[in-house]
Amino acid sequence: MDEIRYFDRYSQTVCTEKVYGDEALRWTYGTVAGKISLNALVKRAAFSHWYGWRMDRPSTRKKIVPFIEEYELDATEFACDIDDFANFNEFFYRKLKPEARPIDASSHSVVFPADGRHLCVPNLSECDGLFVKGEMFDLGSLLSNPEWTRRYASGSLLLSRLCPVDYHRFHFPAAGTPGPSRLINGPLYSVNPIALCQNIQILATNKRCITELETKNFGRVLLLEIGATCVGSICQTYTEGSSVAKGAEKGYFRFGGSSTMTIFEPGRIRFDEDLIENSRQHRELYARVGDRMGELAN
User: Fold this and answer.
1) Which of 68-82, 178-192, 272-286 has the lowest average pLDDT?
2) What are 167-203's pLDDT values in tens digits?
3) How, if at all, do strands 258-264 and 249-253 pair?
4) Which residue pairs, CB below 8 angstroms and at least 24 apart, start in 22-30?
5) Which residues contact 90 (CB under 8 A, 6 or more apart)?
6) Is 81 a catalytic residue?
7) What percent of the chain has pLDDT over 70?
8) Which of 48, 160, 258, 279 is catalytic?
9) 156 is annotated as an active-site residue
């Protein structure tokens, strides 16, 4: 894959992604020496924990301003001043001002759970692939739960990919009552399309957390957070068993690119047309937390 291209919902243009750590990523997944390093070290949790520890050092504060300038981030959205971050990791999982991510108010809508690049699958039993035609991960391996695998076999899925440049807190796509977060350990491969086009099963085997959200309109929704290379940890901030509003914060990722998945029971959601059309072309749609991704199916 030479370039990663996505459709920006706001500018209505096809954009080329500016990949953080592009050279290292292409070396790791595109060369023999890189693949040896990947399997010996990079995919292992110890490597990501070490990198996360590095990003906690006070000396990493000097990386913040150049990063903001390089990737043209809007610092006016941040909930605190740039000088208040003690290290790069604090900046990475920063909070935003509430007005920076307004939540779609319709009682029949469901919203994107994260800033990022999104793909949808209206019916998992009819999926012809995510990034590449014919390449789809195994649902049973992803969920590691036979009951869930049967229930969602013909359900609908949203994959949300967060780049290192994105806001890295994830939110509830609908109002409801969340259950416990179940951790399934696994390796920590990159979730960048450069890696996924070589092995889509990464999404089903990487370290992940699964939460069941009981909702009034959308039934039981599965919320997954998927770790990746250099993700220090997946941190949950919600309270199990307590009702949450649509768009409420669920948790955050420490340093690194990562992904979330939202899986609906069959016949519960109708995704928005721009999301469907771009996904049909195996092209991601860029959209932000709180904007609608679809509505209740009639």
Assistant:
1) 178-192
2) 999 999 999 999 999 999 888 777 877 778 878 888 8
3) unpaired
4) 25/190, 25/192, 25/194, 25/195, 26/194, 28/190, 29/190, 29/194, 29/195, 29/198, 30/194
5) none
6) no
7) 85
8) 258
9) no
